[in-house]
Design brief:
By secondary structure, the chain is an alpha/beta fold. It has three domains: 84 residues, Winged helix-like DNA-binding domain superfamily/Winged helix DNA-binding domain (Arc Repressor Mutant, subunit A, Orthogonal Bundle); 95 residues, Periplasmic binding protein-like II (D-Maltodextrin-Binding Protein, domain 2); 103 residues, Periplasmic binding protein-like II (D-Maltodextrin-Binding Protein, domain 2). The strands form two sheets. Strands 3, 4, 5, 6, 7, 8, 9, 10, 11 and 12 form a ten-stranded mixed sheet that branches. The protein has a two-stranded antiparallel sheet with strand order 1-2. Strand 8, helix 7 and strand 9 form a beta-alpha-beta unit. The longest helix is centred in the first third of the chain and has 25 residues. The radius of gyration is 25 Å and the shape is elongated. Pfam families: HTH_1, LysR_substrate.
């Protein structure tokens, strides 16, 4: 009997459905079913009645469930108990983030947390949002702050919403559309656009918005940095879309700024893995942020 098999059984027992349990565990349904079958074969006991919908636990399965929940609770307590014996460097919290955090005072949050946990240490590094998601999945980071991709619900992440901000249209001076109250992307379908590179979450958001408006954008330049896109708009190369916080940070001087007729948004979130191992310091830091944000 493996600890993983107990975890798989608990997921099935809670969901009462193999497919939903597999989705929660981010494993294939066949892999989940094989592990449960192996567990039953090792015990020589049937734990789950698969013929009912939803599935039901057998009487033996109900007994197994109670003991399995106690075992997992003991395992979690063991993790926490042993953590206090770790070397100080084991208390380092690794955080990845995008460059534009809007008004989030992260440094203040870290300092406040350190007053309660002075032995905690932090590493901070900057990456694009898609790379941060990958690093979090690969357990290279404990937490990540990023612009949520459109398929964020498909990731095994626990999420704290930080802010939702509109994207604005930035136009060259004397552009024919500057007198409009809003920019209708459908009206601007023949305009040259300056987009972030495809490695950016914003690229996907902009492409989707244009598709909904009924056209494929004519992208004359790709720039990963907001400052570079602003410079290209100043030169008259084309139109770009930019978040409110980026516009405040980089300044666009006298360039015309329009709200979009059909708004699109940047959702900045903080995330950690849903099945992250228990950790006194990391769990406390997550709780601290949830109370602050």
């Amino acid at each position: 009997m493996l600890l993983k098999q107990i975890q798989y059984f608990l997921a099935v027992a809670e969901c009462r459905h193999f497919t939903r349990a597999a989705e929660r565990l981010f494993v294939s349904q066949s892999a989940l079913s094989q592990q449960i079958t192996k567990l039953e074969n090792d015990l020589n006991i049937k734990l789950i009645n698969r013929d009912t919908h939803p599935i039901e636990l057998t009487p033996a399965g109900e007994d197994f469930l109670r003991d399995a929940e106690r075992i997992m609770a003991d395992v979690n307590r063991l993790h926490e108990s042993m953590e206090r014996w770790q070397q100080p460097q084991k208390h380092t919290i690794h955080i990845g983030m995008i460059t534009g955090l809007g008004g989030m005072p992260l440094s203040d949050y870290l300092a406040e947390f350190n007053t309660t946990y002075p032995e905690a240490r932090f590493t901070l590094e900057h990456h694009l949002s898609k790379e941060l998601c990958k690093m979090l999945l690969d357990e290279q980071l404990d937490f990540a702050i990023f612009a949520a991709p459109q398929n964020i619900d498909n990731y095994p992440f626990e999420i704290i919403e930080i802010q939702k901000e509109s994207f604005l249209a930035l136009l060259p001076k004397n552009h024919p559309l500057v007198d409009d109250k809003y920019l209708d992307l459908a009206i601007a379908k023949d305009e040259p656009f300056i987009f972030p590179t495809p490695e950016n979450v914003s690229y996907d958001i902009f492409c989707t918005a244009c598709k909904i408006a009924g056209f494929t954008p004519d992208v004359v330049s790709y720039c990963s940095g907001a400052a570079n896109r602003i410079d290209l708009v100043k030169s008259g190369l084309g139109i770009t879309l930019i978040s409110e916080s980026a516009l405040q940070y980089y300044k666009a001087e006298d360039l015309p700024v329009l709200h979009l007729k059909n708004p699109i948004y940047k959702h900045t979130v903080m995330a950690r893995l849903t099945d992250a191992p228990p950790s006194v310091y990391k769990d406390a830091f997550w709780k601290h942020l949830k109370e602050k944000i």
